[in-house]
Write a structure and sequence with these properties.
This protein is 38% helix and 19% strand. The protein is an alpha/beta fold. A seven-stranded parallel sheet has the order 11-12-10-13-14-9-15, with helices on both faces.
Length: 706
């Protein structure tokens, strides 16, 4: 159990809940078996045939058994010496549980050498073993079938009375939740469906509450840390900047700025997550926060996930600030500061100068990539760290940067990937959240359409005509591909989803060549991808931004932050190979100016496939929060919490982050109250035990690092 399922204690086993319950009378839909997955089914033998064949080693035997459940039929195959027992036992009409890996043979689903357990139901001991009508089906593996786990659970169930209950009694009674021992009994051996519901309700609360207590303690501890309060000067840099803005901030930007300035003025480090749709003006909000800190005598660092993005941020910040970014230079004005760029590929001389400007305090603002975190980089007085695109930035890196201040700096984390409220509460629960949800004036709507290249090839031809029309109208376009095209082909097993999956994803280099020679002949087509030399990347981006390139064929390096208002069209090739939030991010690169944007999602997937439904959802709404919900419902929670959040992921067995919003919100409130009253949890020893179990060393460090 330890090896196959990571279950080490009786407690682990009791918290290994059934995945679903099969009913005696009702059999699992064999018609919906997933390929290549390990399954457990309850079914009836329809027929069994023993074949003798001549093989390389002489005569051999093969037993083929067909099982059915009314919805479909599946073949079981046994070979060699393994045929004798099933040949005697699996007679037509017999019912049993079968477990094995679903494979495809001659275009039909089959289970080869499945393990099985007969369900006799004729008054002998088996009936008691499968007590009641509900048979628990456990998440199992090839080495450990569901019914073996069930027998182990039977052996462990009597000890549920010793389970340590993490919920404070007042909370449990106040919310009318079952006792823990009772809930564990009912989840493993329910007599009715109501038993299952009652048990789940209670066990979800445990997970949500213990996790929220961990996060609440994190927030509480952070609240105890000292930080330097940073209040902007009366008529300093920030006022000078605001005075020269050619537009007024949106109401959302003003509200979020107020929240941030409120946090910066306290003597505890700010920990804030700023979520904003692509193009909602997050950079402007972050820049004003940085200026406020510089005003107060501190320095601000902005971290970007890629060099392209760091350069772009640096360019746009210096443009927005104008002469205010020319501190210490001729033409700089009274309140000006210096804005430096620091990336891994800078020349040695420029890098030395940048490091010098940081350590002397000459530079108030630095924008860079992970290079900012290296030991050599020292600040005069680091007051604020802004992290762009949090999901590309590891916990350790945030931590390393935090250590660069004399006292912990304030932290602002920005993301353009809309995160549903529940996920924000679960994954970023140690950060306060601000949301920018209006687009600044002058932004244009983006029309999105799915282009089914396989069903309707003429739609694709029309897509290229549309790109030509945009260029003839004086605009520019992006074409995005999943692959660069100069890498070794990975050997992958073809998936059963569709023939389209068999070919490798479309590549930038090939697509650019075909377009330039074919449908886009005569236009200025260039490529951009991650393996180009940084100078070449920058040069292509500058020429594209300057209007000297009509069509940019690129990988997702353009996904974040690239800002070319004149680019109005985007064609995404093999769009089904990108995630929902990634498509939404990419689409946000067009429609950034006064002209309307157009995004075409090209796919060869058949109409009924999940991939097409996903693309349809992206085309049908521009609301990132709605899309992130769809995204979450389609992927399982595990991916959402992601590898970076591995500490959280493995502890959620019952809680579904999207569906249980009310439980999570209520648990957060209760947890905050418990921790405020008793930060060390001295009066809640059981809760401490549960926390220790949740936060083993590695997860504790993960939360520590925020």
């Amino acid at each position: 159990m330890a090896e196959a399922l990571d279950l080490h204690t009786v407690g682990d086993l009791l918290h290994h809940y059934p995945r679903r319950y099969a009913e005696r009378g009702e059999l699992t839909a064999l018609s919906e078996l997933p390929l290549d997955e390990h399954v457990t089914v309850v079914a009836q033998v329809a027929d069994a045939r023993l074949h003798t064949f001549n093989g390389a080693r002489g005569r051999g035997q093969r037993l083929e058994v067909t099982i059915t459940d009314g919805s479909g039929r599946v073949q079981l195959v046994f070979f060699g010496k393994g045929v004798h027992k099933p040949h005697k036992e699996l007679l037509p009409g017999t019912r049993a549980m079968f477990a094995g890996k679903v494979s495809l043979f001659n275009r039909k689903l089959q289970l080869a050498h499945p393990a099985y357990e007969l369900l006799r139901g004729d008054g002998d001991e088996d009936v008691d073993a499968w007590a009641g009508a509900l048979i628990p089906i456990y998440p199992a593996t090839t080495k450990l079938e569901s019914w073996k786990i069930a027998k182990a659970v039977d052996a462990a169930l009597p000890s549920v009375v010793e389970a340590v209950d993490p919920l404070p009694t007042a909370l449990r009674e106040g919310r009318g939740l079952a006792e823990l021992a009772d809930a564990l009994r009912k989840v493993h051996r329910p007599r009715t469906k109501a038993d299952i519901e009652e048990a789940r309700e209670r066990l979800k609360w445990d997970e949500a509450f213990v996790l929220q207590v961990a996060l609440a303690r994190r927030r509480h501890a952070d609240g105890q840390l000292p930080a330097v309060a940073r209040r902007p000067a009366e008529d300093g840099l920030l006022s000078a900047f605001d005075a020269k803005l050619p537009f007024t901030l949106t109401e959302g930007q003003q509200n979020v700025s107020r929240e941030i300035f409120g946090d910066l003025a306290t003597e505890h480090p700010m920990h804030r997550l700023l979520q904003g749709e692509v193009g909602s003006g997050k950079t402007m909000v972050a820049l004003r926060a940085m200026l406020a800190v510089v005003d107060a005598g501190g320095q601000a660092a902005m971290l970007a996930p890629t060099e392209v993005l760091a350069q772009q941020h640096h360019r746009s910040v210096t443009e927005m600030m104008g002469e205010l970014a020319e501190g210490g230079m001729l033409g700089g004005v009274e309140h000006a500061t210096k804005v430096v760029l620091l990336t891994g590929s800078m020349g040695a001389a420029a890098r030395r100068q940048a490091l010098l400007d940081l350590v002397t305090g000459e530079a108030g603002i630095v924008i860079g990539t992970h290079a900012l975190i290296e030991d050599k980089v020292q600040f005069h007085d680091l007051g604020l760290v802004v992290v762009d695109e949090q999901h590309r930035f590891g916990v350790e890196q945030r931590d390393a940067l935090r250590g660069k201040g004399k006292q912990p700096p304030h932290l602002l984390v920005m993301t353009a990937t809309p995160i549903p409220r529940t996920v924000a509460m679960t994954v970023f629960g140690d950060l306060e959240t601000s949301v920018l949800d209006q687009l600044p004036a002058g932004r244009s709507p983006i029309a999105s359409h799915v282009v089914p290249a396989a069903d309707k090839p003429h739609f694709l031809a029309r897509a290229w005509e549309r790109v030509r029309e945009e260029v003839e109208g004086g605009h520019q376009a992006y074409v995005v591909c999943p692959r660069i095209g100069d890498e070794e082909e990975p050997k992958r097993k073809p998936s059963a989803e569709d023939e389209a999956e068999k070919r490798p994803p479309l590549a930038v280099l090939e697509v650019a060549e075909k377009l330039a020679a074919g449908p886009l002949a005569g236009l200025r087509v260039e490529v951009l991808h991650g393996r180009m030399h940084p100078d070449d990347k920058d040069s292509v981006m500058r020429r594209f931004a300057g209007g000297e390139v009509d069509v940019l064929v690129a990988t997702t390096v353009i996904e974040v932050g690239v800002n070319v208002p004149n680019a109005t069209a985007m064609v995404i090739m093999d769009a089904d190979r990108f995630g929902v939030s990634q498509l939404h991010q990419l689409r946000g690169r067009v429609g950034r100016g006064a002209a309307a944007g157009l995004c075409l999602l090209v796919t060869e997937m058949p109409e009924a496939s999940p991939a097409r439904q996903r693309l349809g959802a992206v085309a049908s709404t521009l609301d990132g929060f709605e899309l992130s919900r769809i995204d979450l419902e389609q992927r399982r929670e595990g991916d959402v919490l992601g590898q970076a959040q591995s500490g959280v992921k493995s502890s959620l067995r019952m809680l579904a982050v999207i569906d249980d919003e009310d439980v999570i919100a209520a648990a957060r409130e209760e947890a905050t109250a418990v921790v405020a009253a008793d930060p060390e949890l001295e009066s809640h020893p059981e809760l401490r035990v549960a926390l220790d179990a949740l936060l083993d060393k590695e997860r504790e460090e993960f939360l520590e690092k925020g």
